[in-house]
Design brief:
By secondary structure, this protein is α/β, with parallel strands linked by helices. The protein has helices at 44-51, 74-81, 99-109, 115-128, 144-155, 174-191, 202-208, 226-231, 236-245, 251-257, 277-283, 315-324; strands spanning 2-12, 17-28, 33-37, 59-64, 67-68, 84-88, 162-166, 194-199, 211-216, 219-225, 262-268, 288-298, 303-312, 328-331. Helices cover 36% and strands 29% of the residues.
Amino acid sequence: MIEIKNVSKTFNLKNKSVQAVNDVSLTIDTGDIYGIIGFSGAGKSTLLRMINQLEVQDEGEILIDGQDIKKLSKQELRKLRTKIGMIFQHFNLLWSKTVSQNIELALQIAGHKNKLTRQQKVQELISLVGLIGRENAYPSELSGGQKQRVAIARALANDPKVLLCDEATSALDPQTTSAILDLLLKINRELNITIIMISHQMEVVQKICNQIAIMADGRVIEQGLVEDIFRNPKHEITKSFIYKSNGDFDEKMLKEIYSKGQLIKVTFNDQVSRLPILTKVIRNCDADLNVIEANLSNTLSSSFGVMVLEVIGDYKEVVDLFIQYKAQVEVI
């Protein structure tokens, strides 16, 4: 388990001070996939780098399995870091070394002296990340997705308990992003590695994370289960991420376009989404309903749907009927 308790970090620049992280507290369970999302400058990468002490917090505590990592000696910290893998947006591979050599280097740095053992481990990792046949290729000969697979294999070389992913898919196209996320999900399930994902792409978090924290201006403004956050976002920044990822609507614009009736947003969970509730509501009310927007989204554990409707007539009756059928309703 990783416990982040009231952590803050300020950078003192030449002409000003910037508080990158401000009183953040999170609990990340062992074996979980936890997403931290925010716009550029939100403080998410600084927070991630404090987990392996590449950045040291000014205030607060970070505990890994109950151990306060700020109190570790340099030798103890080096040992801990071998059990915390990290992958980056731009791969950070050595261009003069082959795929195998890039992965093996992590083992050499960690002090594994037996070359045969190192090579066996490298082959296991190459198989795990799906790069069999590319062992002797150089980074310049690889696609973006293949480079990130090398970086993942390298991060796994020393059997880490935790994998830190700093915008690991931001430089990839959507299809490759999906493949890399599937690989990370496979690694999590097969190896029970705790994965912490930093991203500004809500669809990344939506696909593989169980829990999510949204950051803005160095603070966590909202956190919880991915399904709960997607179904019922409370902060405006969270809503903007979700609406953008789902190609969703602009409430202000819709209210101007559909000004004759009352707009309502109906959210329904996995079970309710399988029922013909819209048909039932239409049959049991006197109002006219106009479907403005509708989509069904999938998270790691379930599905949920959102509809925006224009109600011409008694919208309160419509709201009551949707609630009767176990849907959540928001009057816009």
